[in-house]
Amino acid sequence: MTQANQVKDRTQTTNRSASPTAAVSGAFAAEHSVESFRSDRRHVLDLDDFSPEEIEGVFQNADAMSEVLNRQIKKVPTLRGKTVITMFYEASTRTRVSFEQAGKILSADVINVSGGGTSTEKGESLYNTALT
After folding, report:
1. Sequence-distant (≥ 6) Cβ neighbours of residue 12 within 8 angstroms
2. Mean pLDDT, each 10-residue run in order, the chain (132 residues)
3. Could you tell me the pTM of the whole model?
4. By residue range, what is the domain housing residue 119?
5. Number of domains, the chain
6. Are 68 and 83 contained in the same domain?
């Protein structure tokens, strides 16, 4: 059974799903008495790249975030003082709003940039556009 199928089975069994808010920092985990899932990964391309322990860590943090979202104040200071920039080149309202909400719950300042109207349309590299 692939790890993706294991995740699917676990999700169906426990009626949980990972969200963009799942991977939170050690400070959040300590505050909520859960073991933190930390990763040096900069991108998530395939669930088969994750070990079962990493997948379990994501679910544990999702459980902790679920508790936060049921509180009166639905924020944690994990990304306070940090800025999260999202850039979408295609219309993706649900994904954009989900990532924006996750950043705000983690106390980040969130900036949304749409692909249309950026300097990439004039031939500037994505890297240089992002640096701006």
Report:
1. none
2. 47 38 47 57 78 87 88 91 87 90 94 78 79 72
3. 0.57
4. 79-132
5. 2
6. no
